[in-house]
Amino acid sequence: MPTRIGIAGITGRMGHLLAEEARASGAELTGGVGRAGSNRPAPAGATLFPDLAALAAASDVVIDFTNAATAQATAASLAVSGTAWVLGSSGLSDADEAAVADAAKRLPVVYAANFSAGVNLVLALAERMGATLPAEQYDAEIVEMHHRQKVDAPSGTAIGMGRAVAKGRGVALNDVIESGRNGHTGARKTGAIGFAALRGGQVVGEHTLLFASGTEHIALTHRAFDRRVYATGAVRAALWLSGRKPGLYSMMDVLGM
Q1: Mean pLDDT throughout 170-197?
Q2: How far apart, in whole angstroms, are the C-alpha atoms of residue 227 and residue 120?
Q3: Which of 71, 127, 144, 240 has the smallest number of Cβ neighbours within 10 A?
Q4: Is the pLDDT of residue 133 over 90?
Q5: Considering 16, 105, 147, 150, which one is annotated as catalytic?
Q6: What is the pLDDT of residues 40-98, one digit of tens each?
Q7: Could you tell me which residues come within 8 angstroms of residue 15 by beta carbon, excluding any fewer than 6 positions away?
C-alpha cells in the first residue's frame, strides 16, 4: 500500500508544494491541518483535519514545515500516536530540540536543517573542511541571505553548516559561535565560527561557507532558486521513514551519506 502522508501547515506556501510532491511521488496524501495565519485554501482535493492528532491517526508520516513555536506541542502529540515525523522547521531552541529527541525514543523522526540533496552534500564537505583546515590558520565565516519574511537568523541551514565545521574541528558550535557583530568588538577570536545574516527581497536561500587564511580563501556556496527542492527532499524522507524503527535520523541517513 502507498505511504499515507499528512502535512502540518498544508495551507501555507510550503504546504502546497509538499502536497504536490507527495501526490507526484505515488504516496497517498491524507490531507493536513491549516497553517496559522494563512489565508490560502487547502490544495484542491486535500482533506483538512481539525487538529494534528486527527491527522496523525490517519497518516503513516506527518511532514512539518510550520515553525519553531509548534515543535514541542507537535512532539508531544506525535509521541502519543507514534506517527513518523519529518521536521523541517528552523529556529528551534535547545529545549525544542530536546523535545524532538525525546519524541524520537517513541517514533521515527527525520529532523534536518535543510532537505535539499545539494545542501546535505555541502554539509558533508563542510565537516571535512573543518577537520582538514586548522582553526589556528583558517577563519570560518558563514554568510546567508533569505527573503524579507524570514523570522529566524541565522538560518537553520547556516547553523547546520556551523555545526558541521565545529564537528570537524572537534568542538561544540555553542562554544565558538560569533553572530551579529556590532560596534567595537575587538580582534577576531581564533577558532571562532562567524555568522552574517542578510534579509531582503524574495531570495529563497543562499549560503556561503568561507575559510580565510593569510594565504588563501576557500568558498563553498549553495543557492536555491525554487522552494520545491525542499519539498521534494522532504517527501523523499517521508517515504524512506515509513516503517522505520523509532530514532532520530538526518537527511544524510536518507541519502545514504
Answers
A1: 95
A2: 15
A3: 127
A4: yes
A5: 150
A6: 888 998 999 999 999 999 999 999 999 889 999 999 999 999 999 999 998 899 999 99
A7: 7, 8, 9, 32, 35, 38, 43, 65
Are 161 and 205 contacting, i.e. CB atoms less than 8 angstroms apart?
no
- Taken as a whole, the chain contains a residue count of 257
Task: Kindly state the average pLDDT of the residues 175-194.
Answer: 95
Three-state SS at 176: helix
Active-site residue, 207 included: no
Q: Which of 16, 105, 146, 147 is catalytic?
A: 146
* CA neighbor of 156 nearest in space, from 192, 197, 104, 102: 197
Average pLDDT rounded to a whole number, residues 215-230: 97
3-state DSSP assignment of residue 56: helix
147 among known catalytic residues: no
DSSP label at residue 48: B
DSSP class of residue 84? E
Contact 226, 12 (CB under 8 A): no
Neighbouring C-alpha atoms within 13 Å toward the C-beta of 67: 12
All domains in the chain, ordered by first residue: 4-115+227-255 (3.40.50.720), 117-224 (3.30.360.10)
From CA 257, how far away is CA 248, in angstroms rounded? 15
Question: Tens digits of per-residue pLDDT, 155-168?
Answer: 999 999 999 999 99
